[in-house]
Design a protein that fits this description.
This protein is an alpha/beta fold and about 425 residues long. It has three domains: about 80 residues, 2-Layer Sandwich (Alpha-Beta Plaits), CATH 3.30.70.20; about 190 residues, 3-Layer(aba) Sandwich (Rossmann fold); about 120 residues, Rossmann fold, CATH 3.40.50. It is built from eleven helices and 21 strands. The strands form six sheets. A seven-stranded parallel sheet has the order 11-15-10-5-8-9-16, sandwiched between helices. Strands 18-17-19-20-21 form a five-stranded parallel sheet. The chain has a three-stranded antiparallel sheet with strand order 12-13-14. Helix 5 packs across helix 6. It is globular, with a radius of gyration of 28 Å. Bound molecules: flavin-adenine dinucleotide (FAD).
């Protein structure tokens, strides 16, 4: 049965409320034929070809019915839209899906390091399943990366290299990846929880009619069921939830950058490169790429930075970040921040470390005026060395820190900067 929607003419008052709530403008008001001889002059008409069966108009009309019921004991009007939705009960032969796939993100034809983290964790999954590990790369002028992906552990690389992929457009990438999934039937698919990965992985999951766990930080295979156990922080980081996708394939997960180490390179490793034919003329794409506007920010990106100096609410004012920037400059690091400082507009979001910010894994993390709440720790606790500067000796960050410095950051940081400069000058 296909989806159906229709108006019960005898109940429609022609009030026009449904026209306003329809998100795709598929309802209009028409004049009722004179011969109908009813009190109401207008009638709602639905263009079923445009309707997305979202139910908004049905709910709206039903609400009006409820309101009139209160006023009149037995209203004959409203409750005028009927929708019958197709029940999707797809039975998948899960055993026919084979292999672990990783999506290799590229920007301007350069591979993003997230793929090496995905290959590291996916290798273990593929060995546990005794199935091939593949990488998928979509882009323009990206074929040259295939050998590098093989040398980092991929047994096969699917390459979709075409000018249509030069700039990332989520609809285009979704169509291309979904076509490949439907043809090749992978068992598991990992994608980076980066801005690009997050923006189109959910579309791919919907188009491939499967489930996805977003922002996973742990992944494993259940040896009995061979299912993917994707674990992610939930309830503000207070609980870890393990999510399963039992009936649909591929089981998909996005993986938080910096949650896993990078796969090691084995120079000369052999694998198969599959050049996938791309024919965009078959696709019905509604989105158009207009132009690329690069971000104007000269500070070092925190993702992948080896040293990070972060400022928290203890700075007390936005200007405090001038001191943090100076500190970061002398140590040669990036500037990080806790969420309250971002929420207050002291520093842009891209600097935020933590559960709802970035996960970082630097060699040195200097936390200045940051208490160390669990949501902040979720993004930086795997730093190799942590220096905490705080005036509260009881702050949780001191419990995690390699070195704790108690005192006012406005007194301590200028002294530390001065000392570092002195050492540098002597060299
Ligand atoms: C769902 C959810 C997601 C979240 N995600 C994130 C996230 O991604 N990242 C994040 O950071 N937070 C996140 N939070 C917020 C988190 O719970 C904390 O509120 C936040 O991390 C606290 O930031 P802070 O340490 O800068 O501020 P505070 O907890 O207020 O700590 C300020 C610290 O500065 C010290 N201090 C004050 N003045 C000075 C001074 N002059 N010199 C030295 N020390 C001083 C104080 O002793 C104190 O320890 C999230 C919360 C929720 C509920």
């Amino acid at each position: 049965m296909a989806n159906e929607i229709f108006i019960l003419k005898e109940r429609c008052t022609g009030c026009g409320s449904c026209v306003k709530v329809c998100p795709v403008n598929c309802i209009s008001m028409a004049d009722r034929p004179k011969e109908e001889n009813v009190r109401w002059k207008k009638l709602a008409v639905i263009d079923v070809n445009k309707c997305v069966f979202c139910n908004a108009c049905v709910e709206d009309c039903d609400k009006l019915f409820e309101k009139t019921k209160i006023k009149m004991p037995n209203p004959d009007f409203f409750h005028a839209i009927v929708m019958k939705k197709e029940v999707v009960n797809v039975q998948i032969d899960t055993a026919s899906y084979k292999g672990v796939w990783c999506f290799a993100e590229q920007r301007h034809s350069h591979l993003m390091p997230t793929i090496y983290e995905l290959l590291h964790v996916a290798k273990k999954l593929s060995l546990d399943l005794n199935e091939d590990l593949s990488a998928v790369i979509i882009g323009h002028k990206v074929t040259s990366h295939a050998q590098d992906l093989i040398e980092h552990g991929a047994d096969k690389v699917y390459v979709l290299d075409h000018p249509v992929f030069e700039h990332f457009v989520d609809e285009v990438y979704t169509v291309a990846l979904t076509e490949l999934i439907k043809k090749e039937k992978p068992n598991k698919l990992l994608m980076p929880a980066s801005i690009i990965g997050r923006s189109f992985s959910s579309r791919v999951a919907i188009a491939a009619q499967t489930g996805i766990t977003a922002d996973s930080t742990e992944l494993s295979i259940n040896p009995k069921t061979r299912m993917l156990h994707a674990t992610r922080p939930s309830f503000g980081g207070n609980l870890m939830a393990t999510i399963l996708c039992e009936k649909h394939r591929p089981e998909m997960a996005t993986v938080r950058p910096m949650s896993f180490p990078r796969a090691l390179k084995v120079p000369g490793r052999k694998g198969e490169i599959i050049n996938v034919p791309v024919d965009p003329s078959k696709w019905n794409i509604r989105t158009k790429f207009i132009k690329y506007v690069p971000e104007k920010d000269e500070t070092i990106d925190i993702t992948g930075a080896e040293k990070i100096v972060s400022g928290g609410r203890g700075l007390g004012k936005p200007e405090g970040f001038k001191l943090i920037e100076e500190f970061a400059k002398v140590v040669g690091g990036a500037v990080g921040a806790s969420r309250p400082t971002v929420d207050a507009g002291w520093i842009p979001y891209r600097h935020q470390v933590g559960l709802t910010g970035r996960t970082v894994r630097p060699k040195l993390y200097i936390a200045c005026g940051i208490s160390g709440q669990i949501q902040h720790l979720a993004g930086m606790s795997s730093a190799e060395n942590i220096i905490a500067i705080n005036k509260d000796p009881e702050c949780p960050m001191f419990k995690l820190a390699t070195l704790s410095v108690e005192g006012d950051l406005y007194e301590l940081i200028p002294l530390i900067i001065q000392e570092i400069k002195k050492v540098k000058d002597h060299k």
